[in-house]
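Section 4.2 – Deliverable D4.2 (structural model, holo form)

The reporting period included a commitment to supply a predicted holo structure for the target in complex with NAP. Inputs used:
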Amino acid sequence: MTTIVVAMDQENGIGFQNSLLWHLPADLKRFKAITSGHPVIMGRKTYESIGKPLPNRTNIVISRRKDWFQEGILIVGSIKEALKFAKKIDEDIFIIGGGNIYEQTLELTDKLEVTRVNTTCPADTFFPRIDMKIWRKSGEESVASDEKNQFDMTFETFERIIPLNAEQG
Ligand SMILES: NC(=O)c1ccc[n+]([C@@H]2O[C@H](COP(=O)([O-])OP(=O)(O)OC[C@H]3O[C@@H](n4cnc5c(N)ncnc54)[C@H](OP(=O)(O)O)[C@@H]3O)[C@@H](O)[C@H]2O)c1
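Output (structure tokens):
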């Protein structure tokens, strides 16, 4: 199962100037719970914005650069390669951004774990539109803002209406 994990605002905004749009510990906690113990795939820019490998997960970072090396991560040159390596490690793999990588992998993904943040922020990076002819919402849980989490949010799960591997049986 290949799952995209993303937090987006009401206009699908996900980032600005290579940073997240908010600091939401409740979302980070959920992200950690969902992805820990599994390979995570991300673009080079997202890796640089995080700044270090995420612990307890094989970090697979996609870049076209030939001269880029960072300790503690697996660097690959294409999405295909990232998926190939991740699937060798585990059945359940997670694609964690950013916008560029989401655009190229949405059509290769079985499931979306979306945190819909109840706000609209200035953003320069967006998640693609979720086409409800392709996806159906299979779960929803609302979380109210509190002293640590500035905005209300809804954890939404989407699954493909027609599974990716349906044709292969
Ligand atoms: N809200 C969220 O859930 C969330 C999650 C993740 C990230 N973000 C935000 O998203 C923003 C970053 O997203 P982004 O779209 O700018 O960048 P990105 O998707 O993280 O990374 C793009 C980079 O990935 C590499 N790449 C992309 N496609 C490739 C391919 N087919 N083959 C080889 N390499 C490929 C290239 O690296 P090289 O240039 O090295 O070749 C490209 O510059 C930040 O603001 C971040 O905070 C938000």
